[in-house]
Amino acid sequence: MQKLFVTTTAAVLVAACGGTDGQAAPKAAPARAAAPVQTAAANGVGQKPAFAGQTRAPEVKSNVAYQVSDYVTGLQKPWGLAFLPNGALLISEKPGRLRVFENGKLSEPVAGLPPVDTRGQGGLLGLAIDPNYARNGLVYWSYAEGQPDGKTNTAVARGQLISSTAAGPRLENVQVIWRQKPSWESTLHFGSRLVFARDGTLFVTTGERSVESGRMQARNLQMGLGKIVRINADGSIPKDNPFVGRSDAQPEIFASGIRNSQAAALNPRTGELWEIEHGTKGGDELNIIRKGKDYGWPTAAYGIEYRGGPIGGGLTQAPGTEQPVYYWDPVIAPSGMAFYTANLFPAWKGSLFVGGLGDKRLTRLVLNGDRVVGEERLLAEVGERLRDVVVGPDGALYIATDNDKGRVLRVAPR
């Protein structure tokens, strides 16, 4: 029997309702400003946001009655979710397994994956479906790849999914289309979200591998650590990438100065890539990723080191670096994000949903253009780490829980 949770939230701000088709919410009658969701003291004592509303936006409640039910069970640390055009759900599991959930049945592990390094934060991670899947059957996955010397790197591969076989699903014509260079002596910070742009190119989020030696490469254009990468679907380099033709930069780099990005989605209103990356003790960042821009890590960052003390020189702003659209301090430990443009939840239309590993809640951000104007925390009743969130073809939210007894939850109207 499925477990079921039912929650109703009461409205406190008219502005909590989203807009339509990814547009910003219409202006509402003036309302009393609400306190932020997070009221605990910030770790970055004395740090000030670069502009009003960059952090601790007012709490909003959307007056939505929803129910949470088990959609898929029997998983181990599910990491990525992606719906196929026929409604089947593709699921990656950190221990190196790929599954297909279709017609109420979870498949055996998909055969044909290349070797996956599952140490530390590694494993089988992000997923994406080719925009031309109906014609070519291609699926894409990001994973941690081990090298003979013990070093590791993020890698992206693709293959044709053959699911209607008596022997179970398998991948054919598998190709590794991109590898992070160089490999590094670390099993942390692999990034790994995959997002197709409107022009058919593929964005890959990465991490700077966490260790100090890797961290210092995040702004170095000769190194593939701590970057947002943009490649063609076959792994070749788009000619209009910002650093193509430069001898001092890797041509696949689209943006730099990234710590560890485990959440990314295309804004349906603008077509731009939005990503969220983990901070240290404070400093989770929501960024709009733009061509050739430097997002500052580790030169400029909010929050402090895990062990205490300032990050680098303690700067939150630095010349030549971009500011986040929004940041959290204390952190939510974000992983997985989705813009909501469906009709099943009219009050949530235009919102941005973010999974939380740290606070174990689903964060809803209310947007006005490119600004966050409200924040709501949902699914506290679930009480589990939320690893990924996607919008299903039925308009419901589907959320992966990061547990050894993992599951995919379905959030639908009550």
Quick recap:
With 414 residues, the protein is mainly beta. It has helices at 133-136, 212-215, and strands at residues 4-8, 65-75, 78-83, 89-93, 97-102, 105-106, 124-129, 138-146, 152-162, 170-179, 194-196, 202-205, 228-231, 253-255, 261-266, 273-277, 284-289, 326-328, 334-339, 352-356, 362-368, 371-378, 386-391, 397-401, 406-413.
Question: What does this protein structure show overall?
Answer:
There is one protein chain. By secondary structure, the chain is mostly beta strands. Helices cover 2% and strands 36% of the residues. The protein is built from two helices and 25 strands. The protein is globular. The model is unreliable at 1-31 (pLDDT under 50).
Kindly name the structural category. mainly beta
How much helix, percentage-wise, in residues?
under 10%
Task: Tell me the distance between the termini.
Answer: 18 Å
Shape: globular
Domains, number: 1
Rg over alpha carbons: 20 Å
Helix count equals: 2
What is the element layout, followed by pairings?
Blueprint: E1 4-8, E2 65-75, E3 78-83, E4 89-93, E5 97-102, E6 105-106, E7 124-129, H1 133-136, E8 138-146, E9 152-162, E10 170-179, E11 194-196, E12 202-205, H2 212-215, E13 228-231, E14 253-255, E15 261-266, E16 273-277, E17 284-289, E18 326-328, E19 334-339, E20 352-356, E21 362-368, E22 371-378, E23 386-391, E24 397-401, E25 406-413
Antiparallel strand pairs: 1-2, 2-25, 3-4, 4-5, 5-6, 7-8, 8-9, 9-10, 11-12, 12-13, 13-14, 15-16, 16-17, 17-18, 19-20, 20-21, 21-22, 23-24, 24-25
